[in-house]
Amino acid sequence: MRIEGAVALVTGGSTGIGAATAERLVARGARVLVHGHLAAEVEETADRLGALGLVADFAKPEQRAALVSAALAAYGRVDILVANAGLGWSGPFTAMPPDHLHRVLDVNLVGHLELTRLLLPAMVERGSGSVCFVSSIAGCLGVAGEAVYAAAKAGLDLFAESLRLEAAGSGVDIGVVVPAAVRTGFFTARGRPYGRSLPRPVAPETIADAIVRVIERGRAESWVPRWLRVAAAARTLTPAGYRLLSRRFGEPIRL
């Protein structure tokens, strides 16, 4: 899809991957709407990029609806949706408070399904558009201590796969970027630092570049780093061996 002149909404766009993506879209001539839940961060990023900032708590349905209304009021349409807002939580599933469970599902999965439902029909009617979901390797392989986050990302990935089949021939591209570890504040916010030697954390700009390529080229999927596809294939082809290695080399979490 041609980015120049398009209107792009980036959820979770005030920091990390979202901010880096917003910067690249602005550089390519898009009119960018930067979403975040902290007003000060949104204002700083939007001012720095020359974008429009929109503040909303992505875990609340009424604020998600208001976010879409504000985006459409600003430019009349949204051509590109970068579904990036994310929230983690680390610890044994049995210790996870119910409110955190619902918030992780709302932010990572339900919210982006709702936004897509609100924005996709107009894209289809215009015969042009792009939706790019930022998933996670956790949703493809599973991660101890992040069961709900992994479930949400797995749901997002399969939603995108299914929606891609529905959107075929409509002029709307549905893409997914699957990152591993990224050098952002995500791991601090989830309550546990990143403790693996592999894969090594990459810069958020690396993921932003992958997102832009997916949008520009209409690609279905991009993994960062690419070699992680091998791990996903091993899980499918030799599940017993994969699980043995995962228990041996994964971060230990016990119920």
Features:
Rossmann fold; 255 residues; alpha/beta; single chain; globular
Strand order of the largest sheet: 3-2-1-4-5-6-7
Please write the string of helix (H) and strand (E) elements.
Answer: EHEHEHEHEHHEHHEHH
Number of helices: 10
**Could you name the CATH class?**
Alpha Beta
CATH superfamily: NAD(P)-binding Rossmann-like Domain
- The gross shape turns out to be globular
What is the total number of structural domains?
1
Task: Describe the protein's topology.
Elements (H helix, E strand, L loop, with lengths): L6 E4 L5 H12 L3 E6 L2 H11 L2 E4 L5 H15 L4 E4 L14 H29 L2 E6 L3 H4 L5 H21 L4 E8 L6 H5 L13 H14 L3 E4 L3 H10 L1 H11 L6
Parallel strand pairs: 1-2, 1-4, 2-3, 4-5, 5-6, 6-7
